[in-house]
Amino acid sequence: MVPEDGTRGDSGSDKFRMGVFFFECSDDVSQALIQVPSIKIDKLTTIEPGAGILIDVTDGDVVSFVEVVIDGPYCNPFAVPIASLLTAYRQSRV
Predict the structure, then answer these.
(1) H or E segment at 19?
(2) CB distance 43 to 61 below 8 Å
(3) What's the pTM value of the predicted model, to 2 decimals?
């Protein structure tokens, strides 16, 4: 069972939960998944449905991260470039 309140890192990140970003690729058929090792609670949406689970894609840090991924040289494992964010959410690592 994942503790309700995970151990916090120095910057307030939750060490028991990671951020998962699911992207569509430029061929409109493939997808790509990027996991970040932890996610700060204040990066999650507080609006239902999805409050406390979905990552707030309007947050400035999240927008910057997504822009770097889309504008950068990143691709899925099949070398198809990443094109757009589909969804982002918090996932348990325990």
Answers:
(1) strand 17-25
(2) yes
(3) 0.84
